[in-house]
């Protein structure tokens, strides 16, 4: 009986405990069911978070175009590879969706990724051993080309997946690199953590970064444990907002011509620096602009010069400044061009150092001020400033020409020069471009007043901004009048003087005569300050040789500035040898550019150079198309062995400059011999045949990875190595002869 009572008592206690526990648990469940929360966390929201997955929809950075719509910069797709290593992804599936054979997968991937199979296997095993669902492969798994990605997909490796990513690509290489600049991928902290974005670093890419940069979208949906969408996934899609497109004022054909000519000068004369600007003086539009040294924005390594010297490097301009000295004297009413003065040397007092004409102070006796301009007389400039105008009046005109301010061009990094004007000698030397400094773009802006009947316009390089999704114009630049420092009559008189500085019997700029167009312009031979601060460098080559010219002279449609610093002049002799590299650039670019723009020649004695207008050759026989181009003296290269033309490198109606290479792709394309081709022609071939093109070096092609005559498949890899003639040591004898022939 006692045992029975104890048993009943213990049973009662256990039952009470059970009932209490049951009530507590039941109450808890009822509470959770009623409130839908645990410890303040909403179960519904928690479940949504667990079931919901979200992916970023990448936006596309806006493109950069030239004025005619040629693409200069765009986002090129590449791929990032990852591997699914969780075997649960393959549950209830006939074929595995995860990496079922890590060893075999690593061995097959290694040669395509140029990596060791050991490293790939380590990454796969790391994911498997640490219960990861997927793993990535570091740098070797990023930036994969479309061709490589397709080759990996063709292996049918279970669990290997790809994510599309964009990199910024510049199809023309070093073309206008200081204008376009470059953008690169950087890590940026956001509300959702660290993400990668393409941001502009230099040039237009930096200046217009906010407009070029898009805003990513996203997609989210609810899924099960195996990442499969639920029947009702509650899907939300926020489409990406792509960046706006930027159109520049530069013309791709003229810019390409400028780049090619500057490369030739760079190879022959090996100057320290070069700068060139082509502008429409009526509007202020920059048609072309380039500097040397330059760089390839696709691979900006070992860059010798980050600065856009055309806008960022002030220097003493030399005698190009004289056109503004004479303009100021004429406008102020004190100029008599026929008045004589004694050339050679000029000293305003015993306490001020004498200034001399460039022929060691010998001068040319008593000559007129008009002749003094043509001969580029420093003494004439000094007398006009000191005796005719007075230094204060000349300073007013310098300010009116905006030499005391930046040009306002829409490029980053502009730096203004400095008017050094404190002492009498500084005032005298400023009149002929020594002491005071300016930038090439400041000179060009001021010269628009001379070319444009007294009206000075602001230079600009951004034509318009366009919505990439709707093609609607968001912003558009217009010519902007920023001053009228001189009258129309003064501008006309200065242009006549500029013509005399090129065409008269006394002209220092006789090398700059064009065949078909009259030219007005002024040479400059600027001294270079000694780095140790003691005066200027000496020697025939230690100058900045320059020219600022406009054509046709009576109504200039184009204006161009060229400067070449410290060239190797051993190739040239005679009068003004420093003008040889400058004139080669100016003459080639101006003559061809004016014809290309259909500007009527104004020299009655010349023969008109025909600019060929490309007909429609698509579908024509290869023989007919080639004969048609050859009869028009157009160089053409046939790509393939087919009978019909299926693609051409120049679109119908386009105007072709002399010596431009035209590519005719046949219906059976094969690899041509591209040895000796320029980078521009190689990239054009790659685009036409949709090749995965990789270039190494600059200059002209010396090796190609696809053998000549072999059939070409789409997305095939083409690697080429380029060298300048100076670099190609194995052909040194050819290097010595070719530049001389080129520059005849």
From TrEMBL:
<dbReference type="InterPro" id="IPR036138">
    <property type="entry name" value="PBP_dimer_sf"/>
</dbReference>
<keyword id="KW-1133">Transmembrane helix</keyword>
<dbReference type="Pfam" id="PF00905">
    <property type="entry name" value="Transpeptidase"/>
</dbReference>
<dbReference type="InterPro" id="IPR001460">
    <property type="entry name" value="PCN-bd_Tpept"/>
</dbReference>
<dbReference type="InterPro" id="IPR012338">
    <property type="entry name" value="Beta-lactam/transpept-like"/>
</dbReference>
<protein>
    <recommendedName>
        <fullName>serine-type D-Ala-D-Ala carboxypeptidase</fullName>
        <ecNumber>3.4.16.4</ecNumber>
    </recommendedName>
</protein>
<feature type="domain" description="PASTA">
    <location>
        <begin position="608"/>
        <end position="668"/>
    </location>
</feature>
<dbReference type="InterPro" id="IPR005311">
    <property type="entry name" value="PBP_dimer"/>
</dbReference>
<keyword id="KW-0812">Transmembrane</keyword>
<feature type="region of interest" description="Disordered">
    <location>
        <begin position="724"/>
        <end position="744"/>
    </location>
</feature>
<comment type="pathway">
    <text>Cell wall biogenesis; peptidoglycan biosynthesis.</text>
</comment>
<comment type="similarity">
    <text>Belongs to the transpeptidase family.</text>
</comment>
<keyword id="KW-0472">Membrane</keyword>
<feature type="transmembrane region" description="Helical">
    <location>
        <begin position="12"/>
        <end position="31"/>
    </location>
</feature>
<dbReference type="InterPro" id="IPR005543">
    <property type="entry name" value="PASTA_dom"/>
</dbReference>
<dbReference type="InterPro" id="IPR050515">
    <property type="entry name" value="Beta-lactam/transpept"/>
</dbReference>
<dbReference type="Pfam" id="PF03717">
    <property type="entry name" value="PBP_dimer"/>
</dbReference>
<dbReference type="Pfam" id="PF03793">
    <property type="entry name" value="PASTA"/>
</dbReference>
């Amino acid at each position: 009986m006692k045992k029975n009572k104890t048993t009943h008592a213990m049973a009662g206690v256990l039952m009470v405990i059970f009932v209490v526990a049951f009530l507590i648990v039941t109450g808890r469940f009822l509470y959770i069911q009623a409130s839908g929360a645990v410890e303040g966390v909403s179960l519904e929201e928690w479940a949504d978070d667990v079931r919901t997955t979200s992916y970023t929809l990448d936006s596309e950075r806006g493109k950069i175009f030239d004025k005619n719509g040629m693409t200069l910069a765009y986002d090129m797709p590449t791929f990032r590879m990852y591997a699914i290593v969780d075997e649960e992804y393959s549950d209830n599936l006939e074929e595995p969706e995860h990496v079922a054979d890590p060893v075999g997968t690593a061995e097959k991937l290694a040669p395509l990724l140029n990596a060791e199979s050991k490293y790939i296997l380590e990454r796969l095993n790391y994911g498997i051993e640490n219960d990861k669902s997927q793993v990535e492969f570091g740098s070797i798994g990023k930036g994969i080309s479309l061709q490589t990605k397709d080759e990996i997909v063709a292996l049918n490796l279970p669990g290997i997946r790809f994510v599309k990513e964009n990199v910024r690509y510049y199809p023309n290489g070093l073309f206008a690199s200081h204008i376009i600049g470059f953008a690169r991928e950087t890590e940026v902290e956001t509300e959702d953590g660290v993400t990668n974005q393409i941001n502009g670093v230099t040039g237009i890419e930096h200046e217009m970064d906010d407009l070029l940069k898009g805003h990513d979208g996203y997609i989210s949906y609810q899924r099960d444990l195996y990442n499969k969408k639920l029947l009702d996934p509650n899907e939300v899609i926020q489409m990406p907002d792509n960046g706006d497109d930027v159109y520049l004022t530069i013309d791709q054909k003229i810019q390409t011509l400028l780049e090619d000519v500057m490369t030739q000068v760079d190879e022959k004369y090996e100057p320290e620096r070069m700068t060139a600007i082509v502008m429409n003086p009526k509007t202020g539009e920059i048609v072309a602009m380039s500097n040397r040294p330059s760089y390839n924005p696709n691979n900006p390594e070992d860059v010798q010069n980050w600065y856009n010297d055309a806008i960022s490097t002030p220097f003493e301009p030399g005698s190009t400044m004289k056109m503004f000295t004479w303009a100021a004297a004429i406008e102020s009413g004190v100029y008599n061009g026929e008045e004589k003065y004694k050339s050679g040397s000029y000293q305003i007092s015993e306490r001020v150092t004498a200034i001399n004409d460039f022929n060691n102070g010998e001068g040319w006796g008593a000559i007129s001020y008009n002749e003094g301009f043509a001969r580029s007389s420093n003494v004439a400039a000094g007398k006009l400033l000191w005796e005719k105008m007075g230094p204060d009046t000349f300073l007013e005109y310098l300010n009116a020409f905006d030499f005391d301010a930046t040009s306002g061009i829409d490029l980053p990094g502009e730096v203004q020069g400095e008017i050094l004007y404190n002492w009498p000698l500084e005032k005298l030397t400023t009149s002929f471009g020594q002491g005071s400094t300016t930038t090439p773009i400041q000179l060009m802006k001021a010269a628009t007043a001379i070319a444009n009947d007294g009206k000075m316009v602001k230079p600009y390089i951004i034509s318009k901004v366009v919505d990439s999704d709707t093609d609607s114009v968001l912003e558009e630049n217009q010519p902007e009048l920023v001053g009228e420092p001189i009258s129309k009559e003064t501008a006309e008189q200065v242009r006549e003087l500029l013509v005399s500085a090129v065409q008269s019997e006394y002209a220092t700029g006789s090398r700059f005569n064009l065949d078909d167009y009259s030219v007005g312009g002024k040479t400059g031979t600027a001294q270079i300050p000694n780095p140790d601060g003691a005066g200027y460098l000496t020697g025939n080559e230690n100058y900045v040789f320059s020219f600022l010219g406009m054509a046709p002279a009576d109504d200039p449609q184009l204006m161009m500035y060229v400067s070449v610093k410290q060239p190797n002049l051993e190739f040239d002799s005679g009068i003004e040898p420093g003008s040889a590299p400058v004139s080669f650039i100016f003459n080639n670019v101006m003559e061809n550019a004016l014809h290309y723009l259909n500007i009527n020649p104004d020299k009655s004695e010349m023969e008109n150079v025909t600019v060929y207008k490309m007909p429609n050759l698509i579908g024509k026989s290869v023989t007919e198309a080639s004969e048609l181009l050859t009869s028009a003296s157009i160089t053409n290269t046939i790509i393939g062995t087919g009978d019909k033309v299926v693609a051409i490198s120049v679109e119908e109606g386009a105007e072709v400059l002399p010596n431009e290479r035209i590519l005719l792709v046949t219906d059976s394309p094969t690899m041509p011999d591209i040895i000796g081709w320029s980078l521009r022609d190689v990239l054009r071939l790659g685009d036409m045949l949709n090749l995965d093109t990789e270039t190494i070096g600059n200059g002209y092609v010396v090796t190609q990875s696809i053998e000549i005559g072999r059939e070409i498949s789409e997305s095939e890899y083409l690697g080429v190595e380029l060298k300048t003639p100076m670099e190609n040591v194995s052909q040194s004898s050819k290097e010595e002869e070719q530049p001389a022939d080129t520059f005849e």
